[in-house]
Design brief:
- The chain has 292 residues and is α+β, with helices and mostly antiparallel strands.
- It folds into three domains: 3-79, Beta Barrel (OB fold (Dihydrolipoamide Acetyltransferase, E2P)); 85-175, Beta Barrel (OB fold (Dihydrolipoamide Acetyltransferase, E2P)), CATH 2.40.50; 209-274.
- The chain has helices at 3-22, 75-82, 152-163, 178-208, 262-274; strands spanning 25-29, 34-39, 42-49, 55-61, 66-71, 87-95, 100-104, 118-121, 131-136, 141-146, 213-219, 223-230, 233-240, 246-248.
- The strands form three sheets. A five-stranded mixed sheet has the order 1-4-5-3-2, sandwiched between helices.
- Mean pLDDT is 83; it is low at 283-292.
């Protein structure tokens, strides 16, 4: 590349930069106050100074590193901006910190193939399983509007099924698409994993405060069967879901099981072992050793 060509490119860049600094521009502002702009093929990240709220904004550059919000755009301005990018239909899953997770509502879309869940930014006033139209700018998916071609009753049905804890294989509605079934499966699975995580934390917390360690648990309709370790020995007990009251202690408590919860049971086990009065009880309720 000759010296004249290099100088020409530098002059072009300097001219483009000056025009940019003198101009106003529309852009989506995300949490944390950053915007992306393109100048002569180069992408710049600018920090938005002053009071910043996520959303669409009209900004003016302060420098090549900073910009400030000077106004909020109208709906037509936002739509005109989004129309520059390809549209696609997505199914919303769940909200996360930065946006909404979504999957493709059109698995056979050859123009823009979406693999797995993606994040949709600036989606406002939406709900799980809703079908939307988004725009892809080459880096991020931006919410445009709900897809009015899809009956909202479908998404409402899926939300009701989720609230009723209906397993994915029992979700039935004639108009459900394969993509909507997959969206439901993903959300149901995530909810189950979150619930199991909360349960594990709750049981672990109750046991660890008593000096015991959770091994595993089995969830039943109204109870948990918990396997835990006390001073190197494993014990099992059945406890109520709502308050962890002992239903079956796994040791002989002379019918007083329900006077204890999971945490206090550990103390009883430890005390009984120290005093030589601990008597395990078999799964069938029969005493395995001398009565306690």
């Amino acid at each position: 590349m000759g010296r004249k060509t290099i100088h020409s490119l530098l002059d072009k860049m300097n001219s483009a930069e000056q025009k940019f600094l003198d101009a106003e521009f529309l852009a989506p502002v995300l949490q944390g106050g950053q915007v992306r702009v393109r100048i002569e093929g180069f992408v710049l990240m600018l920090r938005v100074v002053g009071r910043v709220e996520p959303g669409w904004a009209i900004l003016k550059p302060v420098s090549l590193e900073k910009a400030e919000v000077i106004a909020r755009p109208g709906l037509k301005q936002v739509r005109d901006y989004l129309s520059l990018f390809p549209a696609l239909r997505l199914l919303l899953l769940t909200p996360e910190k930065s946006g909404w997770l979504a999957i493709s509502a059109q698995a056979g879309n050859r123009r823009l193939k979406v693999e797995g869940p993606v994040t949709v930014y600036l989606a406002m006033g939406v709900e799980p399983f809703q079908q939307i139209i988004a725009r892809y700018d080459g880096a991020r998916f931006w919410f445009q509007e709900p897809d009015r071609r899809r009956n909202p009753a479908v998404a409402a049905y899926l939300r009701e099924a989720l609230a009723a804890d209906t397993p994915p294989d029992q979700v039935r509605k004639p108009t459900l698409t394969a993509e909507e079934r997959e969206a439901y499966r993903l959300v149901f699975q995530a909810a189950e994993e979150a619930r199991r995580s909360r349960t594990e934390i709750r049981l672990t917390d109750a046991l660890i405060h008593a000096g015991a360690e959770l091994g595993s648990y089995i969830e039943r309709e109204d109870s948990y069967t918990v396997s835990f370790e006390v001073d190197g020995r494993t014990h099992r007990a059945a406890v109520r879901k709502d308050d962890l009251t002992v239903l079956s202690a796994g040791i002989c408590l002379s019918g007083q099981d329900r006077r204890f919860d999971l945490q206090s049971l550990v103390g009883v086990i430890r005390e009984g072992r120290q005093e030589g009065r601990l008597v395990p009880v078999g799964d069938d309720g029969s005493e395995e050793e001398d009565p306690y």
